[in-house]
Specification:
The protein is elongated, with a radius of gyration of 28 Å. By secondary structure, it is mainly alpha-helical. 57% of the residues lie in helices and 4% in strands. Helix 1 runs parallel beside helix 5 (53-66), helix 17 packs antiparallel against helix 18 and helix 17 (310-326) packs antiparallel against helix 19.
Length: 447
């Protein structure tokens, strides 16, 4: 009965605030209930953790309607941000809820209002990214999450102790001296490790979750943030760090296992052989959490922000170069995971205008190449990026209305261009229609 009273009270408050925002309510001379409820924002936010879905859904509707006060404390921003993001991920777990789209839209509106402050934007992006990578949420976006399978062979009655299982193998199978004895892995006293399987959801729901998450992040980035405590942004003022740059720095901090990349814009070619362990850890993050590729694609629209992601770019590029150098497949399309990573890297560098032409177009031909040609082209991309270091200092913006301009033009080695041309000519039957795109015909070329 108590939660029914809470639901009824929240519904009445929602109706009152909606009436105040109607034309009739705006003309009535009275103190607005909305202003009064803003003083109790943290108490309303606490209802998001209620065990009843009806209470929490009405609470998020009320939070969306009342908004944030003009002056808000850091504690309130932190409380509202963390609670709303946690509630957002909880709603994504509900597959068949009829109110799911409406509640998600309310969450998006609340998060968008929080991101109007610079502190709130930073907190929100951090909570959203870290929440999407957590084990309990990663599978919602296509992430690889495993669960243990409790089958009949591991039941309490038929389970064999780990020691007994290994003794049984040792007494029945004789191994040669040069061979290593193979034992079952498990926990002492609990038997062999149980089987595991991936936690999956339907592809349609996964794509819907990814689209919803990207829309929420984009709404947080699209809002003009202001310093905490200020009423509004100064006209003509340029924010020293855009939301894309905040997101880029956050991704680097979350994904990179250490700080050895600090101060390195683009390393020497020896990095490909000497930093394999760190590069594989970063690459595994991307493979286990495909949502990271989507976030990188969002950042790629901002050249300066993409420069901050250079540790992620050269680490993933290093792993694919190492793979294609020793790959045993006949065509690049036979290794879809490595091909996808290679195409994504080229796409991000091209979209951010960090890769010089004609190498910015090679993503269109990668799936038709063999491993050696992939290795050669990606190695050239590494060398080209080393010449044209992706540094934010290379870009200048005179005013918010003007586009970014690069102070030094992108250049490339003529020998690398000839190598690309020879690969296209060797596969002219497949790339003949693309040749003018890579090497446009000019009047000087004809003469």
């Amino acid at each position: 009965m108590h939660f029914l009273q809470s639901v009824m009270m929240l519904k009445n408050l929602v109706c009152l605030v909606q009436w105040e925002n109607s034309p009739e309510g705006r003309t009535t001379p009275r103190r607005k209930l909305q202003d009064c409820l803003q003083s109790y924002l943290q108490m309303i936010t606490a209802q998001l953790h209620h065990s009843s879905c009806d209470v929490s859904s009405e609470a998020i509707k009320l939070m969306m309607l009342i908004g944030l006060p003009d002056t808000v404390s850091m504690a309130t921003i932190l409380n509202v941000a963390t609670s709303t993001v946690n509630y957002f991920f909880c709603i994504l777990h509900f597959e068949d809820s009829a109110n799911r789209p409406c509640i998600l839209n309310c969450c998006c509106k609340v998060l968008e209002s929080l991101s109007k402050t610079a502190v709130g934007q930073t907190i929100l992006l951090k909570e959203l990214v870290e929440g999407a990578l957590q084990q309990e949420n990663a599978f919602l976006f296509g992430g690889k999450v495993v669960k243990y399978v409790d089958n009949a062979s591991t039941s309490k009655d038929s389970k064999m102790l780990l020691l007994q299982e290994n003794q049984r193998i040792g007494s029945t199978v004789s191994f040669a001296k040069q061979m290593t004895n193979v034992f079952h892995g498990g926990t002492v006293g609990k038997g062999v490790k149980p089987q595991v399987e991936l936690v999956t959801i339907s592809e349609d729901l996964m794509l819907m979750n990814i689209q919803t998450f990207i829309c929420v992040v984009h709404s947080c980035l699209a809002t003009d943030s202001r310093p905490l405590g200020s009423q509004s942004s100064t006209p003509g003022e340029v924010d020293s760090k855009s939301g894309n740059e905040v997101l880029a720095n956050l991704l680097v901090d979350v994904i990179c296992p250490d700080v050895t990349h600090a101060g390195v814009v683009w390393p020497e070619e020896e990095h490909i052989k000497t930093k394999i362990k760190m590069d594989l850890l970063i690459r595994n993050k991307f493979d286990s959490n495909p949502i990271l590729w989507e976030l990188m694609d969002m950042i790629a629209s901002d050249s300066i922000a993409m420069c901050h992601c250079s540790p992620l770019l050269y680490s993933t590029l290093s792993t694919v170069i190492n793979y294609w150098d020793s790959a045993r497949v006949s065509r690049a399309s036979d290794a879809p995971s490595e091909l996808k990573a290679s195409c994504n890297i080229i796409k991000y560098l091209s979209k951010a205008q960090l890769l010089v032409a004609p190498f910015c177009y090679i993503g269109e031909i990668l799936d038709h190449l063999d491993p050696h040609e992939m290795f050669v082209l990606l190695s050239i991309v590494w060398a080209t990026m080393k010449i044209n270091t992706p540094s934010a200092a290379n870009y200048n913006q005179t005013s918010p209305d003007q586009p970014l301009t690069r102070q030094t033009p992108l250049v490339c080695d003529p020998q690398h261009v000839e190598t690309l041309k020879s690969i296209l000519q060797r596969n002219i039957d497949r790339f003949g229609h693309l040749f003018p795109r890579f090497f446009p015909v000019t009047s000087s070329t004809i003469s």
